[in-house]
Write a structure and sequence with these properties.
Length: 222
DNA sequence: CGTTCGATGCACT
DNA sequence: GTGCATCGAACGT
């Protein structure tokens, strides 16, 4: 019984046909991979958010089915990629059952493979010096940043995550403690604690977790 | 260190 | 025309 190689099995479609909160938590520690013509890039999922049903005011389906949000109503395990703020793509994994609109937003990754490629993609349209200053841990920090680093765009919308170029796999990697709290970046539905992240992980978005002691934050300079 | 604000395109009212 | 599941430069403390 050797076969102790790194597992790279994609999560099966059934994985996504579960309650969205369970999927959102279970996706932490899995690996999002994109094989593109430019090369392969991947990262460990360390932050997610759930968007559940037409009753969720922050869910894109809150106003009913439209052309844009149609993938939310489709089969679980497909992507829902959309364009926001005129410049960012955001990627979701569709969950639950056909006809019920719900998904998990991937908000942050810890870069694993293809770090040079990620940095090259994020360099697009900005000065080389500014890009060189971006630490590895920030390359996929935030939902807009990770799609840029992985080369995810409108062409990846409504694509299966269990096969094909863009997929989520389980490599059996261990993660730290999981924390939950309110979703961020939204103006409604903030009462629902449907955001999940790995505690104290440096690639999680939002306000940076301050290091334990040693940092003097309240000193009046001069 | 913290907070504010402009960029930028598209879906939807 | 309005508002958005964002980002980072610019400014104030």
């Amino acid at each position: 019984m050797v076969v102790r190689t790194r597992k790279t099995e994609p999560l099966p479609p059934d994985f996504y046909a579960q309650p969205t909160l369970r999927v959102a938590e279970a996706l932490l520690g899995k690996v999002l991979v994109h094989d593109s013509p430019d090369g392969c890039a991947s990262g460990l999922i360390v932050e997610t958010e759930a968007y559940i049903g037409e009753d969720d005011p922050a869910c894109h389906a809150s106003a009913g089915r439209t052309a844009r949000n149609a993938p939310l109503y489709g089969p679980p395990g497909l992507t829902y990629v959309y364009f926001n703020y005129g410049m960012h793509y955001l990627v979701n994994a569709v969950t639950e059952a056909v006809g019920f609109p719900a998904a998990v937003l991937i908000r942050a990754l810890e870069p694993l493979d293809g770090i040079a490629l990620m940095r090259a993609r994020r360099m697009h349209g900005r000065s080389a010096s500014a890009c060189r200053a971006v630490p590895d841990r920030d390359l996929c920090r935030g939902p807009g940043n990770l799609t840029r680093a992985l080369g995810i765009g409108a062409r990846q919308n409504a694509m299966p995550l269990w096969s094909g170029a863009l997929r989520i796999v389980d490599r059996g990697l261990a993660i730290g403690a999981v924390v939950t709290g309110p979703r961020i970046g939204i103006s409604v539905g903030q009462d629902r604690p449907w955001r999940y992240w790995v505690a104290s992980h440096p690639s999680v978005s939002g306000r940076r977790c301050r290091p334990e002691s040693g940092g003097r934050s309240q000193s009046g300079s001069s």
